[in-house]
Amino acid sequence: MHEYVIIYTFTIFALTTLFIMWRPWGINESIPAISGAILLFIAGVVPFSDILQIFKLVSGPSITIISTIIMCIVLESIGVFRWAAVNIVNKAKGSGKKLFMYVMFLCFLMTIFFNNDGSILITTPIIIHIVFLLHLKPRQKLPYLFAGVFIATAASLPIGVSNIANLIGLKMVGLDLISYTRFAFVPSMIGITTLCLLLYHLFKKDIPKNIATINDSSIEFLMSKQSQGANSHPLSGEAQKLQTINWALFKICIIIVVLIRGSYFILPSYGVPIEVIAITGAVILIVIRWISMKVGIKDVAMKAPWHILVFAFGMYVTVYSLNNTGITVFFISLFESVIKENLVFASFITGIFISVLSNLMNNLPSVMLGTLIITDMGLDIQTLQVSYIAIIIGSDIGALLSPLGTLATLLWMFVLRKNGIYITWSKYFKVALLVIPMTLFVTLIAFNLWLLFIL
Question: Which residues cross the membrane (predicted)?
Fold first, then answer.
């Protein structure tokens, strides 16, 4: 490939990444992603045959994530998450430490049942409502806010379907969701537990010993407080009206979500694609809501992140262009011999490499690039799959070192600013540096110890 083509490709990639992170004039991140892809396609760096292959790779995971967020929108519309905001405070029974634990548990569950980006959009406003309802001081808000973003993002590691970055490379390395979970669940839970303990140790002086309780746990109480100054939920197109919860509908929808989540691990073995299961779940919730509340699909059509498919496709084309310039050959020559030596080297090298790369240019393109690198190394299937899981560990945990590392952290900072809470990048780094490297290291060690039991 000519030198000017290589320079052109790297320039487009750098500008695409810059504009995704910067988002001037508030542009959607999918615009620079697809613009870069179009420029690379026009220049012939990525041929049409690659375009078709890329679309096959990203369409399924993207549709799965979009369908999951649609389910979130439906649940939000019936008051599930606003109900959670009040009841999580009541559950703490006046203890700031218990509230801290419940916030982390809530964020974990939301990511497990939905996905990390959806969890951020759901739990961050809930946490904001909580800290405003309790009239916490600025420094007392930080433990809950940071716990929210770190746990919600790290919790996408245990099961593959909780993060689009986890899903895209599964087929390329011969993994399904069950085998992924077999590799990742135990070490990731050890890592998440470590992260929780580190966060508690870091913030224990700032966590209030005693907090107020809310006697009236109705949804009207929360919404009346919200109307006094807090902004509406980011998934909401307009201010919510006061409403009570339809408990029958509430229970039915929760049951459906649990069944759909379980189906991800059962039905694919019978040939049912994951995205079909996700779409089915979204459609069922929409239909049940319409039957019960006579609410149509306008809110879903307006609020669903349809741009995710465009964003993932554009980023994959951009990263694939780097592969076509030969950058993967450079990294293969750099790491191949060491990675092939043993599984410990393979996991630590790929995990740390993707962590560094993610904090420089976001985890989605980093996972894409890392997957292309390891699949071109000619690794045996065991080393290939171990390396891929380590890549995901670096992507879901190591990437949290910088706000640039994940889309979830960028969304978190956006939601905070929207609600008048400003956390500087320096403050973010000070917290992340004290918890993320240790969490990554412990998770990789746990992963290697776990491999001794399952391989």
Answer: 6-22, 34-55, 61-84, 96-114, 120-136, 143-164, 184-203, 248-266, 272-292, 304-322, 342-360, 397-416, 428-453
